[in-house]
Amino acid sequence: MKKIVSLLVLIVLFSSCNEYQKALKNEDVAAKFEIGTKMYEAGKYSKAIRLFEQIAPQYRGKPQAEKLFYMFSQSYYKTKQYTLSGYQFESFVSGYPKSEKVQEAAYLGAKSYSMLSPEFSLDQTDTFKAIEKLQNFIDTYPNSEYLGEANESMRILSDKIEKKVFENAKGYNTVSEFKAAIVALDNFIIGFPGTKFKEDALFLKFDSAYQLGINSVPAKMEERLKVAKTAYTGLMKYNAETKYKERANEMLARVETDLQKFTK
Asked: 0.90 exceeded by the pTM?
């Protein structure tokens, strides 16, 4: 019995493969559409794509075009070809605005771009593009069933941008570019007022001002030490029990000691 079942499976697979190969070479676009649909429904998306690519131009404007381009878009998405699926889903939304699939297509188009977003340490051009696409979806379909997923994707992408900007600002402190660090950290705090990195950013700003002050030339030292003291106050105002409290207090003591030189 097992041998018979195995034989039947092989026959079906061979028949399907043979049918697909014939369709690739066939000039009949209707036959390609039929076999392409069978491949799609069977989850053989790469094979479906090859057939859909051949007939897509001829089907534009035809009654079956909506189904074809939806399957075409989904096939790219299922095979993780997100640049192509993003483009195809956007084209579908533009071409078939009254389709019952339009919201799903709009969401998957935006999600395709989000799937192209790289690690936070890399260039975030694709992340910004994904955020723009998702925001457009949210604005266009505020009551969509995909709204929760879209908002979650937006949160993840926004967190990535936030971490990228913070790490860039932090990097100036790490390489002792303290003037640049103060500016970058200020811009970060202003740009992301609710950030989870605010305490870290405020301490790094203080540390940068401190390092700049205590290592300054005499002519600029007093002014820079006062800037450091103000940065300390900003940190303590944000969180009087900051995790950096002990270290910050030691640094402040040094600042105040050095400032005393200018009161004599």
From this structure: no
